[in-house]
What we know:
Layout: E1 2-6, H1 12-25, E2 31-35, H2 47-67, E3 71-74, H3 82-87, E4 93-95, H4 96-107, E5 111-115, H5 121-131, E6 137-142, H6 149-152, H7 154-171, E7 176-179, H8 188-195, E8 199-201, H9 202-215
This protein binds [(4R)-2,5-dioxoimidazolidin-4-yl]acetic acid.
Amino acid sequence: MHIRVINPNTTQAMTDxxxxxxxxxxxPGTHIxxxxxxxxxxxxxxxxxxxxxxxGVIEEVLAGEREGTDAYxxxxxxxxGIYAARELTRAPVIGIAEAAFHxxxxxxxxxxxxxxxxxxxxxxxxxxxxxxFSHNCRRIRAADIPVLDLEEHPDRALELIIEExxxxxxxxxxxxxxxxxxxxxxxxxxxxEAVGLPVVEGxxxxxxxxxxxxGLGLGTSKFGDLAFPRPKPFVGRFESYSxx
Length: 244
Ligand SMILES: O=C(O)C[C@H]1NC(=O)NC1=O
């Protein structure tokens, strides 16, 4: 099985972190390709960043279709472009937020999310609502760190994330923590040991869910709204999307 793990931002160090975490849990026989767009934001910390990153996600899915891919992971906690990506392939496309919510709901009745900047908490809130997990999430929290601090100041970032996770454990009456950033993919053991709660991380959860979906012979339904896009002309910079 070949899984294409797409980091929607353009920071190679974070793509490498995500790829290593994915390979650490992948089953024998699962080949992981970790990739990122050629252009776009170095980190995704706003609605604008996310909107721009979607074009990169689409490019990486189209590249995966040309190369042959059994499943795609969108490794950003906003799951940017997930429905557009699903329209472009028969393979499953799994976002790390959706994967983490499902996994956390299997091991706890309530969880809290710890993400990076306060301003991105609304993105997680919107996803909880759209995926139907609002009831399962007690609180969305932020360690108040820029996304790239995870790569550039990892020790301080880990310290702040653990502090916020400990506050969640003390205050939120939860059974699990969900890590709200693809860049946290390598931190699960350290956080779990420090906090003493099950920690669910979206990249690794998505890998195992992708293996399960493909293993059951399932993929993105092409009936209804996730059917391939109707062929039509595109003009200007998107002309190459004409009659896909
Ligand atoms: O929304 C966030 O804070 C995290 C999100 N941004 C990013 O560049 N990768 C992510 O997973």
